[in-house]
Write a structure and sequence with these properties.
It contains 14 helices and 26 strands. It has 596 residues and is an alpha/beta fold. β7 and β8 form a beta hairpin. The radius of gyration is 27 Å and the shape is globular.
Length: 596
């Protein structure tokens, strides 16, 4: 393996720029960390008066029925176990289930349920975790959505969580909320299943998220998952010549790609291009490869804009994800396709696969085949249950090299009963049984109020498939710059620290070129937002560079992130010798012979 002088020079320039930004960032981070450390306390359940853990959930005096519901207290002698990820949640929010629960019966409407005042007012601009267990009884078979909503005394909602609960089983609620201004009064409100279905609520808790403890945990986890001890060993014949010689190790690429979406308008902006080239190593086309874009009118197919963007990425040596061949959500399907009868639609599907996949054969390392199948079934409803797997099979038949991904949203948020990790795994399993070569799982990451252990729990469940996971469309939308930076850091750290995650893509980064407002890393005038500074700081933190001297045994040792490196050794008469090497995953130290 070899790198051109241009690549090494660019890597070193970026390293210098990032280290300068990081040094400024470090002071901000230290100040912020000190403030958080001072403010951090053992999180307590705001539903308990005075924060006391002696107030049991089963005390009906604190719950009120809503609508036609009636409330009674009960005990389950076989409560659910504490989830594995909850072990990393400090304070009262990781208490083991007590078995005591409140039953809301005689519900005549999905809005009927139970509510409870939060006696300790939530603080403004603090993220709170809503946790607990719920179950249902009665009604039709299958799961029912149970919603735990946090709202003001006037009824406006702040957030919460939703879970699909089944009769006879306890499901864990994992929600979140945040208030912009401290409310005069707030309450939790539990509802959701259809009339006639009873709701059970056990050990509901509302606790402030302890960012300090979580970030400390993630830094340790990242070191274990993403780094390795390395020994550069110079051959004995050269040992005498190199002993004590100055050496520099530069990481030129991280093993975990971090990329961004691009579009035709954005790449005309020099500030956009400069930030993209410096800080991202993969790309995805925002719209230009989608079917509604390449064939808006039947028979008029054009890949001109896609080709232009792919050529741009080729010039800058950025691999491109193929997004997407189809889109399962009906309102994202162009009108002429929606108007086709089943026979015509099947022919159009076959033509689309042949057109796109044949044109870019061998070009894309991966494809997202049929976008958002958890939220849409346009093709399945018209062409049968096997059509999604058929799309995978036919794509692989034309171009067997790319990894073929599923891709969907809300899977990591615990706020969408249609997009639970369990449903995602079931969809993947069904595709595989039908002969689809599913090569990866796309978790979009359009997040609001991210909570670290909730994201980690979803990733753990997806990792059980043993398929690589990518965060494919990450953005956070918060007007407050500091909160946006915190939310972005939460998701990035959780993803980077998780061993199943093999890539992260941002769904835009510059104001004016993003799908969601208030998500920018780069302002319209080309200056960094707080989120942008945090992002650059993380990129620097996750890049390993080392300097020193070769020891008396002809070795140089360092611990570095997985990825590609260049080592530069001072030679005689002011010369320099360079070698390239890879640091791959492994528990044992990596010993590399550096033959000069």
């Amino acid at each position: 393996m070899a790198f051109s002088e241009e690549e090494v020079a660019l890597a070193m320039k970026i390293m210098a720029d990032e280290q300068a930004a990081a040094s400024a960032m470090m002071k901000v981070t230290e100040d912020r960390g000190s403030e958080e450390e001072e403010a951090a306390t053992d999180p307590v359940n705001l539903l308990w008066f005075g924060g006391s853990s002696e107030n049991p959930e089963g005390d009906l005096a604190r719950w009120a029925p809503t609508g036609s519901s009636t409330l009674t207290a009960h005990v389950d002698t076989a409560p659910p176990p504490l989830s594995a990820t909850a072990e990393d949640v400090p304070g009262e929010c990781k208490r083991k289930p007590t078995g005591r629960y409140v039953l809301a019966a005689h519900r005549a409407d999905e809005k009927d349920g139970l509510s409870r005042e939060i006696p300790q007012e939530p603080k403004a601009k603090v993220t709170y975790r809503v946790a607990g267990w719920v179950s249902v009884d009665g009604g039709p078979d299958g799961g029912h959505p149970v919603r735990v909503e946090v709202r003001s005394g006037e009824g406006s909602g702040f957030g919460g969580g939703v879970v699909l609960a089944e009769a006879g089983k306890w499901a864990e609620i994992k929600g979140a909320f945040r208030v912009d201004e401290q409310p005069r009064r707030a309450e939790v409100y539990v509802h959701g299943p259809p009339a006639g279905v009873d709701i059970k609520v056990m050990d509901l808790r509302v606790c402030a998220v302890d960012r300090v403890a979580r970030l400390r945990h993630l830094r340790k986890k990242t070191d274990k998952v993403r780094k390795r001890d390395v020994v550069l060993k110079f051959n004995p014949s050269a040992a005498d010549a190199v002993n004590g010689a100055s050496i520099r190790v530069v990481q030129v690429d991280n093993a975990v790609p971090i990329g961004a979406c691009i579009c035709k308008a954005a790449v005309q902006n020099p500030a956009f291009v400069d930030f993209f080239v410096k800080h991202f190593n993969w790309a995805v086309l925002e719209n230009e490869l989608k079917w509604y874009y390449t064939e808006a009118n039947q028979g008029q197919v054009s890949y001109a804009d896609a080709d232009e963007l792919i050529a741009f990425c080729d010039r800058h040596k950025k691999p491109v994800r193929g997004h997407c061949i189809f889109w399962a959500v009906e309102n994202s399907v162009q009108p002429w396709v929606r108007a086709l009868n089943p026979g015509q639609l099947k022919a159009a599907v076959e033509a689309r696969i042949r057109s796109l996949v044949s044109r870019y054969n061998g070009k894309f390392p991966c494809y997202e085949v049929n976008n958002e199948m958890l939220h849409g079934s346009f093709f399945r409803q018209r062409l049968g249950d096997d059509i999604d797997a058929h799309m995978f099979r036919e794509t692989a038949a034309i171009d067997p090299a790319p990894a073929l991904f599923v891709n969907d949203y809300n899977v990591e948020n615990a706020n969408d009963p249609n997009a639970t990790p369990e449903k995602y795994v079931a969809l993947i399993t069904d595709l595989q049984k039908r002969g689809a070569s599913v090569g990866g799982i796309g978790v979009q990451g359009h997040v609001t109020l991210p909570v670290g252990d909730v994201i980690c729990d979803a990733l753990d469940k997806l990792a059980a498939t043993e398929l690589p996971v990518w965060i494919t469309e990450l953005d956070v939308s918060v007007a407050d710059e500091a909160l946006r930076a915190d939310d972005l850091e939460t998701v990035l750290r959780e993803a980077f620290a998780h061993p199943a995650v093999e890539g992260i893509m941002l769904w835009g980064f510059m104001q004016g070129h993003m799908w969601r407002d208030h998500g920018q890393l780069l302002n319209a005038n080309g200056t960094l937002s707080e989120a942008g500074r945090r992002f650059v700081g993380l990129r620097t933190e996750w890049t390993s560079h080392a300097r020193g001297k070769v020891d008396g045994d002809g070795n140089f040792k360092f611990r570095g992130f997985h990825g590609k490196y260049v080592v530069e050794l001072a030679a005689g008469a002011g010369g320099k010798v360079r070698r390239a090497f890879d640091v791959q995953k492994g528990d044992a130290p990596l010993v590399l012979d550096m033959n000069l």
